[in-house]
Amino acid sequence: MTEFHNISNAPTHVAPFSHAVESDGWVILTGQMPTKPGGATTDPLDEGIEAQTRQVMANLETVLKGIGLGLGDVVQCRCFLTEFERDYAVFNDTYKSFFPADRLPARTTVGVTALAVGALVEIDCIARRPA
After folding, report:
1. What digits encode the pLDDT tens for the residues 45-81?
2. Which GO terms describe its molecular function (predicted)?
3. Which uninterrupted H or E stretch holds 78?
């Protein structure tokens, strides 16, 4: 059975999607933007890659918590940066601070030309429910 999750205290959708879709214990989270919960998609974003990465990670945590999981259940992340060369090092330092050093998820990071709402970063992920 597939479940489609929308979390009431997560940020407002910026497109038509579910915050997470779950099937057979696998949970796929939609890419999160650096928008704030309760705000409008037109609200200004925090400045800089560090602040935006922290907000994206907080948003991922909110969605995961809403379905009874946490970042420790994440097995893979895909990260998208609009200013790859400029922001990659600071992004890495900020991102890794959310995980224990010996439990980093598999990851792909891609430079892109643009993201929704003018964001510098977007991250989606796959989590697995503990057996």
Report:
1. 999 999 999 999 999 999 999 999 999 999 999 999 9
2. deaminase activity
3. strand 74-81
* CA 41 – CA 15 distance, rounded (Å): 10
Amino acid identity for residue 55 in this structure: Q
User: Could you give the CA distance from residue 68 to residue 62 in angstroms, rounded to a whole number?
Assistant: 10
Number of compact structural domains in the chain: 1
Q: Quote the CA–CA distance of 72 and 112 in Å, as a whole number.
A: 27
Q: Return the structure tokens found at 86.
A: 């400029």
The CATH number of the domain where 112 resides is what?
Answer: 3.30.1330.40
User: What residue numbers bound the domain in which 99 lies?
Assistant: 2-128
Pairing relation of β-strands 121-128 and 26-32? antiparallel
CB 46 within 8 A of CB 96: no
- Cα(103)–Cα(40) distance, integer angstroms: 34
Q: What are phi and psi of 73, to 5 degrees?
A: -95, -5
pTM exceeding the 0.90 threshold for the entire prediction: yes
What string of DSSP letters covers 38-51? TS-TTSPPPSSHHH
